[in-house]
Each structure stands twice: as C-alpha cells, then as structure tokens.
Amino acid sequence: MTLTTTKRHALATVTLAALLAAGLTAAMAQPGFSPIDQSNPEKSGQDTNMRPYPTPPTATPLDKLPLDKLKLPAGFKSEVWSHGHPGARTMVRGDKGTIFMGTRQIGRVYAIVDKDGRREPKVLLQGLNQPNGLEFRNGALYVFAINRVFRYDNIEDKLDNPGEPVELTEKFNLPDTVHHNWKYVAFGPDGKLYVQVGSNCNICEVNPGTHGQIRRYNADGSGMEIVARGVRNTVGFDWHPETQELWFTDNGRDWAGNDGPQDELNRIPKGREGARFGFPYCHANGIPDPDIKVPDPCAGVILPAALTGPHAAGLGIKFYTGSMFPQTYRNVGFIARRGSWNREQKFGYDVVLARPQADGTATIEPFMTGLLDTAKNEFYGRPTYVFQMPDGAMLVSDEQNGAVYRISAGASR
Hints:
single chain
C-alpha cells in the first residue's frame, strides 16, 4: 500500500467515523440506518427501544399455522395453499403454472409446483442479496436483488438446474441504497418494466433523480424514465383495470410518533407521470415533516388517494379482476399490510380493501383480519403480498410463518 493510498484510507475512515457519530442516535434506534438519516427518536415521544421484528429463518409447521385465527367476510373461506418456504413474500406465476416466490432477509427464490396433487416448494436460487423483486415474461424469470438484475430464460424447463442467468445489472444501472434497498418490480400494461428505487434513509433529503422513485424501463433495461418522485418506499403497485392508472402503496417514515405520518395509497393521474408525492418534506394528507423543514413543503405534491394507517407497512396490492368473488369486489384493490414495528400499540397485520371512487380517491375497509390480538398486543402472522390465481382465488403470502393462504368464495376447489 502506498503512502497516498494510506492517507486516503485514513481520511475515509475519519469521514465515515464522523458520519456515524452524527447519525448515532438513528443507528441506535434503527438497525440498517443511513449515515445521512435525520431521524430524532428522542423527540418522537416513542419508546426508543423498539426494533424491527426479525423474519424467522424457519417456517412454521403446518399444524401450528394460524389458519383458525383468520377472519373473512361472509361467504369467503381460507385454507393453507402452500407452506415450508421461510420468508415468503413476492409471488409471480409462470406460463406453465409455477409460482415463483421472492424473499428479503432469507436471500432465496422459491419455485412452487404441483406434484402428485400436492404443492411442493423448492429452493430455486439462494445466497442472493434480498431478492424481493420478481417478474415473469415470455418464459423468463426476472430477479432484482438490491442493485443486481438477472434474467433466467426458459426457467420452467430448468427448475432443477436454472443455469447461468443473463445479467442485466449494468443496463438497469440501479443505485445501491443503505436503507430501502429491496426492490419491487412489475410489467405494466404498456409492456414496460416498472422498478421501485427506495429512499436511502428513514428521513433525509434525497436526490430526486436517484432515490425515492418509481422508474420504468424497456425489458432489457434501456430507456429509463422516472414516473414518480418523492416516494419513500413502495413495495407494491398495480394498474387499475379500467383506467390503466398506476396505484402504489408507500410506507411512511418512522420515529415521528406512534400515530403517523400514516402510510399512503397513491395514484398517478394520467398525464402526471414524473410528479412528486411528497417525501421527504410532506407526508400523508399534507403533514410537514418535523425534522426536515422547508417553505411550503406540500406545494405541487399529489396527495394520497387514501391513507392506510400508521406504520401499517402496506406492501403488495392487486386489483381484483376475477369472477369467483362477488361483483362488488371487481376492480377493488387488495392490500397486504405487513404490520407495524415502530409503534407501541401494534397495527396492521392484515389484508384491506381499497375501493376506488369516482373522484380518484379510495376508501379503505377490512377484509382479512385475525392475525393481530390488540388486547394482548401480539401478532401471529405478517401478510406481505397478494396474488390472483387464474380461477379467481386470491393467494396471500405470510412472511412470518413461511406460508401462503388461499382465499376463495363459494365452493372450495
């Protein structure tokens, strides 16, 4: 090592130490913090000992799953569709019926196939860095893991040996982030691949050209456009079946109080692609941030279509287009709320409905409850994604238990 390199290394060490010291409060309060974070847990009035709940590395045995706790509207039924896949999150379906499932902390991608009338999960890929973002198109599985992008061609013919993927990382050129670095992706009705790039902090000023966005690309990673800015962390979006407008959930910031700012359900009106949705200056229905203050923080911001609750952690959203459920559920959004950690009285841990209104807003109402005991302040599962099957049934993944529940209406199939 040369003397110049040594000096540079020493300077980098001192600089990092200064940044870490400046963000020490946030670091103590929130593991995985960013050095540029401007959180102030002591000022929030919350218990600063709160920590995110770790995802279990093993799946809950079948006879211990909380199926008996699930509550649904009259006429609906829940059953265990699959289990034995720890960290279950994102779900996409291949052309031949394989369900591919992404994870976050577990670092795996699963393939769930029907075998002898039973569903059998297998570890398809492992050792990846938070492969939460999955999509399937033309026989290929797209895997977004932090800032690396892979495409596995003809994957359903190679479930026993996926082989070497086509790497598209350089084409997509996604920034690595310290905080909200797991991805969510989906092909839109325009054939473009939409990609979430979260904020690189709990609360801080971000570069609107780099972080806190939803982007869209051609399938090969070319032609990048930003379709939404000021988005703290969306891990779920879908297009309204009739208007084709993009709706997305957005997780609100932590350490600003037990009751908010509430999480959001947003809609990008036609012709407003690239607009701002508030982060980090404006939250919920026009609440200025208490730590980052600027004049007129909500000026020009598109306010939410609906609020989805304090620290509720809304993740996947799917608009229902099937015929199994009653007609009143058609074109209604189903949102999986993973549940709070930065709230003393727990909130969420369920699936809610978002009913779009003629004025572009939505009303929120319960659908699948029972995984949270408010009296005991305990949760028994964490819904993370929803997926509509060809027969019209809805699948709900439970990250906490490593399971998927099937929600049906009428006779079970």
